[in-house]
Design goal:
This protein has 432 residues and is of the alpha/beta class. It is built from 15 helices and 17 strands. α4 (157-169) links the parallel β8 and β9. The chain binds zinc ion.
């Protein structure tokens, strides 16, 4: 299928732009970008006057089934929120409700211009199936927790689920699905688990997803638990950072930790909304950026955010840096476009993706520039970051297939999904 986007205002991943351009997709790839209309026949022409065409957005930290818990357990700090609300509710999950939870999250993400997400949770095979069915991309990891120091690779059922997931689905759906390994966090793991999980990931070229130094309490308790080593030092020493890792949060990392992250090529997933809502603090983005760390954006789960909206995270990330440093000129808008797009693709091990370029995967979104809140516009990166919101996303294309256009999801029956989800949650919360 050849689709021509004509008269587009293209915003590239580095914040540069091209006005009144033509972009042709052929199958799953971007075939041509030009100032003149390309020759030949097209299956469809999309008029992009008064629209911004940019790379699809990456959500590098999510727990997609947690849409079930949206609004359940508000106004609590992280430790109480987990132990009093989330963990007891998670005991009631099953394949059927996780399927609806993940699909609802995917529907929301596609409408918000997200083309790929990183997910760490359980019932992972069910989530992978919803990814395949919907057409979105995802890196899915079976989240592993372990508390018995004597645990082995053979006896760890969670690890073995992750291995089975890798064998069955890594590279599935023409590469849309990638399987990562996932260690929940320093405070929920033991040394042996870090070693055999990272050995497996290193041996098979897989990525790693984990939570790192999200709260001050967790960071301080980690240092006490590990004989003076910070969580980042603990993961370095147990071999985890040999593996291409995405570390979510990093709110309380030390200057030495930042050096470790930079030297080991660890990507950071910045989740400003979740960190603020749970009272965890503000990630030192400027220090991480200056150290050369690959910074990506994430939403975290719907229970701690409560939306899956990367444009909102980019906006918050930018404002927090200006507000906390008092320096409005340190960052232009461009680095935040980069964080929302190509940095995410890099963290997910998707070489060549996250950009608008000939030969790149056709992962493209259109943003309305003719909306009340986006006019007038000057620099496209500024409009992307400060004016546009997810309601302005009018088209989401993944690997050359349009999955969302003008309010309509094309691979998901939204009304049926909402009906089934409402019925399921009514039953889920009946006795709670
Ligand atoms: Zn998380």
């Amino acid at each position: 299928m050849k689709i021509l986007f004509e008269k587009a205002n293209i915003l590239f991943h580095d914040g540069t732009s091209m006005k009144n351009a033509y972009l042709l997709t052929d199958g799953a790839k971007i075939a041509k970008i030009s100032a003149e209309k390309p020759e030949g026949g097209f299956d469809r022409v999309v008029n992009c006057e008064k629209k911004m065409l940019c790379p699809g957005l990456y959500n590098c930290h999510a727990h997609s089934p947690m849409s079930i818990f949206r609004g359940y357990g508000e106004n609590l700090p992280l430790d109480r929120w987990l132990s009093e609300k989330i963990w007891p509710a998670e005991d009631k999950l099953c394949d059927a409700n996780v399927r609806l939870g993940s699909m609802l999250s995917i529907a929301e993400m596609l409408k918000n211009g997200i083309v790929s997400f990183s997910d760490m949770y359980f019932f992972s095979e069910t989530t992978v199936k919803t990814v395949i069915e919907s057409g979105i991309k995802a890196n899915v990891g079976r989240c592993i927790t372990a508390f018995d120091p004597a645990i082995t690779a053979e006896s760890d059922s969670r690890f073995n689920e992750g291995v089975e997931l890798h064998k069955a689905y890594h590279g599935a759906a023409e590469g849309r699905v990638r399987i990562d390994m996932s260690i929940h966090a320093e405070y929920t793991t033991v040394e042996s688990t870090c070693r055999y999980v990272s050995d497996y990931a290193a041996e098979h070229g897989l990525g790693m997803q984990l939570h790192l130094s999200e709260t001050a309490k967790e960071h301080a308790e980690g240092i006490a638990r590990r004989n003076g080593k910070t969580p980042a030092e603990f993961f370095l020493e147990t071999g985890v950072f040999r593996v291409p890792t995405t570390a979510a949060h990093c709110v309380h990392v030390s200057d030495d930790d930042i050096k470790i992250l930079a030297e080991n090529g660890v990507s950071v997933a910045h989740n400003p909304a979740s960190n603020l809502k749970l009272g965890s603090g503000i990630m030192p983005l400027t220090k991480l950026y200056d150290a050369g760390v690959n910074i990506t954006l994430g939403t975290d789960g719907s229970a701690s955010n409560n939306t899956l909206d990367i444009l909102k995270e980019a906006y918050l990330a930018a404002l927090l840096q200006k507000g906390t440093t008092g320096d409005t000129a340190k960052f232009s808008s461009a680095p935040f476009v980069t964080m929302a797009t190509v940095n995410g693709a890099k963290a997910q091990g998707r070489a060549g993706a996250g950009v608008i370029a000939e030969g790149a995967p056709a992962d493209i979104i259109l943003i309305d520039l003719n909306a009340i809140n986006t006019m007038p516009y000057f620099d496209l990166a500024d409009t992307f970051l400060f004016a546009a919101n997810s309601a302005n996303v009018c088209l989401t294309m993944v690997d050359g297939k349009i999955l969302y256009e003008n309010g309509v999801l094309l691979t998901i029956d939204e009304e049926k999904l909402k009906h089934d989800f409402a019925k399921m949650t009514a039953e889920f919360y009946r006795d709670m």
